């Protein structure tokens, strides 16, 4: 049990965030824990396990109470991943960096991510407080209900559990904003890669929806002053988009926790998005998110998506450039 708990894959946004805060306050730019600059010292390695090279069939489980507008923002982000016709720099361009990762056979991460099914768990099947393990039971429920269950797609299914802002999840806000892992046959029947991301909007937007909200103790101005506006209108959802992107990048390159990660300890790995938390554009570091764009209303974004949508998504580690990278990089 202990080892199970230790091997969850977490987004340690809090940690890098505390680092960001202290840096901002002391003007200390030397100890940046992000790798925006090129680094040959970083020991990102392939550990011989499988990666997601087949077209991904994505299934969403909407857990709790969801607003249709928020759902369509998230769906549009997911559609944007495989939409090559959106103007650059796009979410599609962003995914091309993840495609640079290969497995033992030389196969790249897939280009194709399709939203193939959605399940609405509006009755909070496992309550309003979920443990990490009970998220697997939420998935089990979604594939075994009588009325319109999700398919059990063990070939190329990827399950994404999204919890509404009134749902508490173990370690949410305190240590994590999302995580990815794989299901256990004893709970779900098979081993399936999955990810969970929570809406932090009412619980901890300053932690999980940065930079759309400031953390409580950051010494930053309160109210809306100097907070970056959310391009789709809701900080909690906007924060989820970047965390969803983070988890999709990592679950694709490290689905069974034995493929791409840095560090020698598989139970506490640095995966390809962990290395770039808080980096959204060129020059990021020291409390600065990097150079991003502003829309007409002054809201921040760095990527274009389908239907004229704009999103702010963190960068990921580029194995060829050996640095964090995103398509909005200024050469
Ligand atoms: C596949 O990965 C290799 C190695 O990173 C890269 O050179 C190649 O461009 C990638 N192919 C695609 C289609 O991204």
Automatic annotation (TrEMBL):
Give the UniProt keywords, A-Z: Apoplast, Secreted, Signal
Mark the transmembrane ranges: none
InterPro entries from the xrefs? EXORDIUM-like (IPR006766)
Q: Does the keyword Transcription apply?
A: no
Could you name the domain of life of the organism this protein comes from?
Eukaryota
UniProt subcellular location? Secreted, Extracellular space, Apoplast
Which terms in the GO cellular component ontology are assigned? apoplast
Q: According to the UniProt entry, where is the signal peptide? A: 1-24
* Family in the record: Belongs to the EXORDIUM family.
Name of the molecule in the record:
Phosphate-induced protein 1
């Amino acid at each position: 049990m202990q080892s199970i708990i230790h091997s969850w894959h977490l987004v340690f946004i809090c940690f890098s965030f505390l680092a960001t805060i202290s840096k901002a306050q002391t003007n200390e730019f030397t100890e940046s824990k992000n790798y925006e600059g090129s680094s040959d010292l970083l020991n990102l390695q392939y550990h011989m396990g499988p990666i997601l090279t087949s077209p991904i069939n994505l299934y969403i489980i909407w857990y709790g109470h969801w607003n249709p507008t928020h759902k369509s923002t998230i769906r549009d982000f997911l559609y944007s991943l495989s939409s090559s016709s959106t103007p650059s720099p796009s979410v599609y361009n962003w995914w091309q960096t993840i495609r640079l990762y290969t497995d033992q056979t030389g196969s790249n991460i897939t280009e194709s991510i399709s939203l193939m099914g959605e399940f609405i768990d509006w009755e909070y099947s496992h309550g309003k407080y979920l443990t990490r393990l009970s998220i697997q039971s939420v998935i089990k429920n979604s594939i075994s209900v009588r009325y319109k269950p999700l398919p059990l797609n063990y070939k190329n299914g990827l399950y994404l559990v999204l919890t509404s802002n009134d749902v508490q999840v173990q370690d949410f806000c305190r240590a994590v904003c999302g995580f990815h892992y794989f299901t256990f046959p004893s709970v779900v029947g098979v081993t399936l890669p999955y990810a969970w991301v929570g809406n932090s909007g009412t619980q901890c937007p300053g932690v999980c929806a940065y930079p759309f909200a400031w953390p409580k103790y950051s010494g930053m101005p309160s109210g809306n002053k100097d907070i970056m506006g959310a391009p789709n209108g809701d900080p909690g959802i906007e924060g989820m988009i970047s965390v969803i992107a983070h988890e999709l990048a990592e679950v694709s390159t490290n689905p069974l926790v034995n493929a791409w990660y840095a560090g020698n300890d598989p139970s506490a790995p640095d995966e390809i998005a962990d290395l770039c938390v808080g980096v959204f554009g060129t020059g990021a570091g020291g409390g600065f998110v990097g150079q991003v764009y502003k829309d007409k209303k002054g809201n921040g974004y760095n990527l274009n998506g389908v239907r004229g949508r704009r999103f702010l998504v963190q960068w990921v580690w580029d194995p060829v450039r050996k640095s964090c990278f995103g398509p909005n990089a200024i050469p």
